[in-house]
Amino acid sequence: MGSINQTIMTDPDLLKTLLQAIESADSSTRMVAAVESLAQARLEAAVPNLIAVLGYNNPGAAVAAVEGLMAIGKPAVQPLLELLDGYNYGARAWALRALAGIGDARALDLLLDAAKNDFALSVRRAAARGLGMINWDELPIDSIGSAQARVIEVLLAVSQDHEWVVRYAAITGLQELAIASTISHPDLTRQILRHFDRLVDSDEDLTVIARIWLAQKEIQTYITEILSQQPELEPKIAIDWQATLAKLYARKRQEQPHPEGDPHKFREVAAAIFKGE
Where are the chain's structural domains? Predict the structure, then answer.
């Protein structure tokens, strides 16, 4: 597909050629390559076709389609909202990943509902992460506070989901929300940090606890950087992420030791998790 010369084709002709390649793909590998070519073309007219790919039973093609939709950006948002598959939860999860990556505030209501109510853990997970990636400056200034309050209410609830991967995603979303609201709405940041402290004591999954530690550390790093640039802000937000790390080590020591198990490796584990999420 890389041999297609896009410089001598009109957009409609290019789209037709790229779609024909998808239709004629006779293997999973060729399908992925064809969708990648379609995604790389960044044609707004291809948005419905990229959305259709999200429903294929081909994760590689879905990843390429999500990347293409994210690259197209805002023009893809309304079609994603209108063409969301209510029956295929896999396609729904991929669509929410695309919306999360774009960060458009028009997806807020959908993300809130999906994070709280969808039966599929992959959908709840994608929505929870997406709620932390909203571009808040797209909203009217006087509505940002109320919108963030709605988000934190849902994420606090989702952070206690029965599936650990959903809780993990909610921690990621809460971290981003805490950072976004540190200066404008510091009370929200304090509320999130207090919630993190409670979760450390109540959550049973060490991976989730490690993610809480990372979230606290990232929030502290952000606040430190902001204060170094604007010391007059003084948000006075206390973060005891070291205490969380100590609790993490204590929980690890209570478990059966693993052959490779130095609990201090949690620093590396947590860092790897953070890079992946």
Answer: 1-97
